[in-house]
Specification:
- The chain is of the alpha+beta class.
- Helix content is 27%, strand content 33%.
- The strands form four sheets. A five-stranded mixed sheet has the order 9-8-12-11-10, covered by helices on one side.
Length: 308
């Protein structure tokens, strides 16, 4: 189970090294500080930086939290950076899954990239492809995005890197849509669509084949509800475009679309897509019909094992 150890903000990496030195390696399988990649401008130049995703916390995967808690109290000088009087706290499974979906094998949330059409964000790559529904703020100047996530038993703001490479005027996008409508009358359209869908399938197959051992138990796109379904967007700025469903969550429908020559991921609201039954689902329903005719605050939480 995953637990968090509360430490002095800004001392996460120092604490990680200290714990790695004094804790018995057999007591834990992972000891890490989730960080996110971003950029900062100084001296007239943009520099790559890494910052703690959850300031004041070190994460440890262990089955013996009491041993670790007891040992922390006897680590020399730990009282200056580790809040040893507080028990280490367990992380809910859904919270852990969210963190592991974002970080890579080095426990880093890589920089996301995308562009905007009006006020709609279109992600082309990066961790934000999986959690656009949790976005609450975008700072284009600092190249940061703020997510609101249910973590540590409460809604917690979390920053990750985001580079908005372009902001497309709505008028330009509408002109592109009109051009695409003309292309749909081309007899080669079906061949292009088939090639595009195969490209998506190849892309996702390669993506999941390259994942490391720590992510083997995660559900693949094909295992998520509605994944692979092709839908037509009915309303909004993307009305008339085809989209391939990635997943459905309470935040909305995450889908891929081919947009201005780029494959991007967007978040759609149910009212934007209207009817979302796939052709295969409709066929199954028709066959079935035919057959039927025939016949809290973090410091106040409990530190006990097994949950917060």
């Amino acid at each position: 189970m995953l637990y968090v150890i509360q430490v002095m903000a800004g001392k996460e990496e120092v604490t990680e090294k200290l714990l790695g030195k004094y804790l018995d390696a057999s007591w834990y399988t992972e000891l890490f500080v989730p960080r996110y990649a971003s950029v900062r401008r100084y001296g007239g130049v943009w520099h790559d930086i890494l910052k703690a995703m959850f300031p004041g916390y070190v994460f440890v995967e262990t089955e013996v939290p009491k041993k670790i808690f007891t040992r922390i109290k006897f680590i020399p000088k730990s009282m200056h950076i580790i809040y040893a009087e507080r028990e280490i706290l367990s992380v809910y499974p859904e919270e852990e899954q969210f963190i592991r979906d974002l970080i890579d094998e080095n426990y880093i949330v890589q920089m996301s990239k995308g562009f905007m059409i009006g006020d709609r964000l279109c992600i082309t790559e990066g961790a934000l492809e999986k959690c656009q529904g949790k976005l609450i703020k975008i700072d284009r100047h600092k190249r940061l995005a703020t997510l609101s996530v249910n973590l540590f038993g409460r809604e917690t703001p979390v920053e990750v890197g985001l580079e908005v490479v372009e902001k497309v005027p709505v008028e330009t996008f509408e002109e592109w849509k009109e051009e695409e409508k003309g292309k749909k009358r081309n007899p080669d359209r079906k061949a292009r669509e088939l090639q595009r869908r195969r490209k998506w399938q190849d892309r996702y197959s390669e993506y999941f084949m390259q994942k490391e051992d720590f992510s083997k138990n995660r559900p693949t796109l094909s295992e998520k509800e509605g994944a692979g379904e092709i839908i037509i967007i009915k309303q909004g700025i993307f009305a008339g475009l085809e989209a391939e469903v990635v997943s459905r969550t309470e935040e909305g429908i995450t889908a891929n679309i081919l947009l201005m020559g780029k494959e991007v991921r967007i978040l759609l609201q149910p009212e934007e897509v209207g009817e979302t039954e796939s052709v295969s689902e409709k066929s199954e329903i028709a066959e079935s019909s035919g057959q039927s005719d025939r016949g809290g605050d973090i410091y106040g939480r409990s530190g006990k094992e097994g949950g917060i």
